[in-house]
């Protein structure tokens, strides 16, 4: 077990820039999300955008992962591999997850997109998942414990009849892709390490319509699907613990107050 890194002001500056770029790449990707487009095409556009800004995609070559983003449709929980064969159709919901390395620093963010008209159930799942991320972010302040992030997320998701994926977690990020601590999205109140100013980590809840369990595709070794093939949604931000609260480093639209 490693230690949770407290980032220096210089590291925070570098991670903030990388996180911004990841958020911009994700926003840029949005214009290509439409009926008939294959997900490899979107991945190519993301890769081009990241490179043209002097950075690289962290996922490419990471433990053998082949692409510059993860694009996860419908019952895919996470780690969907962009491919020519995966063609967007009306009613699809998808998560695009982008991680950049800029100047040696990592930024990690993801969000949901929809294609054409989607079902009311899908809309509700997406809205709930975004609210779960917001609730998690509200818990980020010095002295609070990591377990409270998962506590509020699980309490809310469960109350609405959804389940929280427990096999994939948020993580420390910035100097490396996946650092300590592991940030659980379902956990017990007042458990886990204490948050301190200078810590940077992701919150990335994956919320399922049905059972929480994932199964990994036996052919590609990456794609994680719901066991019951029901829908799954995810949103992810990279956050910094500040002396008073937090700053959402992947928020480029001032949707979260800096405290
Ligand atoms: N970006 C993902 C995360 O949020 C990790 C993807 S790792 C990959 O942690 F290898 F699947 F790309
Ligand atoms: Co992440
Ligand atoms: Co990510």
Assembly context of the chains: single chain
Name the hetero compounds present. 2-amino-4-trifluoromethylsulfanyl-butyric acid, cobalt (II) ion
The percent of residues in helical segments reads 25-40%
Which architecture name does CATH use?
Answer: Alpha-Beta Complex
Number of domains: 1
Largest β sheet strand count, sense and barrel closure: 4 strands, antiparallel
Please identify the structural class as seen in this structure: alpha+beta
Please state the overall shape, judged from the principal axes of the Cα atoms.
Answer: globular
CATH level-1 class: Alpha Beta
Beta content comes to: 15-25%
Q: Indicate the radius of gyration in whole angstroms.
A: 17 Å
From the N-terminal CA to the C-terminal CA, the straight-line distance is 30 Å
CATH superfamily: Creatinase/methionine aminopeptidase superfamily
**Average pLDDT figure:** 98
CATH topology: Creatine Amidinohydrolase
What is the helix tally?
Answer: 4
**Which consecutive residue ranges, at least 5 long each, have pLDDT under 50?**
none
Summarize the structure.
It is built from four helices and 15 strands. It is of the alpha+beta class and 259 residues long. Strands 1, 2, 4 and 5 form a four-stranded antiparallel β-sheet that branches.
Salient structural properties:
259 residues, alpha+beta, 3-stranded antiparallel beta sheet, 4 helices, 15 strands, 26% helix, globular, binds 2-amino-4-trifluoromethylsulfanyl-butyric acid
Structure commentary:
- By secondary structure, the protein is of the alpha+beta class.
- It has one domain (9-248): Creatinase/methionine aminopeptidase superfamily (Creatine Amidinohydrolase, Alpha-Beta Complex), CATH 3.90.230.10.
- 26% of the residues lie in helices and 24% in strands.
- Strands 1, 2, 4 and 5 form a 4-stranded antiparallel beta sheet that branches. Strands 3-12-11 form a 3-stranded antiparallel beta sheet, with no helix packed on it. Strands 6-10-13 form a 3-stranded antiparallel beta sheet, covered by helices on one side.
- Strand 7 and strand 8 (179-183) form a beta hairpin.
- Helix 1 packs antiparallel against helix 2 (39-52) and helix 3 runs antiparallel to helix 4 (147-159).
- The longest helix has 21 residues, at 9-29.
- The protein starts with 8 loop residues before the first helix and ends in an 11-residue tail after the last strand.
- The model has no long low-confidence stretch (mean pLDDT 98).
- One cobalt (II) ion binds next to strand 4 and strand 5.
């Amino acid at each position: 077990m490693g230690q949770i890194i407290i980032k220096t002001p210089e590291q925070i500056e570098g991670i903030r820039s990388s996180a911004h770029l990841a958020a911009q790449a994700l926003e840029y990707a949005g214009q290509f999300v439409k009926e008939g487009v294959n997900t490899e095409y979107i991945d190519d556009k993301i890769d081009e955008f990241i490179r043209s800004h002097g950075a690289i995609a962290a996922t490419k070559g990471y433990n053998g992962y082949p692409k510059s983003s993860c694009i996860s449709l419908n019952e895919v929980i996470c780690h969907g591999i962009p491919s020519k064969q995966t063609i967007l159709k009306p009613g699809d919901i998808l998560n695009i997850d982008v991680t950049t390395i800029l100047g040696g620093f990592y930024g990690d963010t993801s969000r949901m997109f929809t294609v054409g008209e989607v079902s009311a159930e899908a809309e509700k799942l997406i809205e709930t998942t975004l609210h779960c991320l917001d609730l998690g972010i509200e818990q980020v302040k010095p002295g609070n414990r990591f377990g409270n992030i998962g506590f509020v997320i699980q309490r809310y998701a469960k109350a609405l009849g959804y389940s929280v994926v427990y096999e994939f977690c948020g993580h420390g990020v910035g100097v490396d892709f996946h650092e300590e601590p592991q940030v659980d999205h379902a956990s017990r109140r007042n458990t886990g390490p204490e948050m301190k100013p200078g810590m940077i980590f992701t919150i990335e809840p994956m919320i399922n319509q049905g059972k929480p369990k994932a199964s990994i595709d036996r052919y590609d070794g990456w794609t994680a699907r719901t066991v019951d093939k029901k829908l799954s949604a995810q949103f992810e931000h990279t956050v910094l613990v500040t002396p008073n609260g937090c700053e959402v480093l992947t928020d480029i639209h001032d949707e979260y107050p800096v405290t």
